[in-house]
Write a structure and sequence with these properties.
Elements: H1 7-20, H2 25-39, H3 44-50, H4 55-69, H5 72-94
């Protein structure tokens, strides 16, 4: 596996966004299982950190964490560049 050092932050982001969004019990269960198996921990503190926050607040905190501790920001920039390139190509093809 590549970049396994990022997995805790990625799982935390998924857990938080699910908690504040759909709160899908399957996603919650998989995250609980992963935290227990991979890190020998649970999601109790993450849950407490999410309680009472809006989706916007959680998204801001998740992005700050991901930008600081992972390569997610670089990924977003790369993905944005690909989209722009694709859109430019489509525009040229339709002219």
């Amino acid at each position: 596996m590549r970049n396994t050092k990022e997995i805790q932050e990625i799982l935390t982001a998924i857990y938080c966004l699910n908690f504040i969004g759909n709160n899908d019990k399957n996603i919650r269960s998989i995250c609980d299982y992963a935290f227990g198996r991979i890190f020998n921990s649970n999601t109790n503190l993450i849950t407490l950190a999410c309680i009472g926050k809006t989706q916007e607040q959680i998204l801001n905190e998740v992005n700050k964490m991901l930008f600081k501790k992972t390569n997610y920001k670089s990924y977003l920039e790369w993905h944005k560049h690909l989209e722009e390139t694709r859109n430019e190509r489509i525009t040229k093809e339709t002219k």
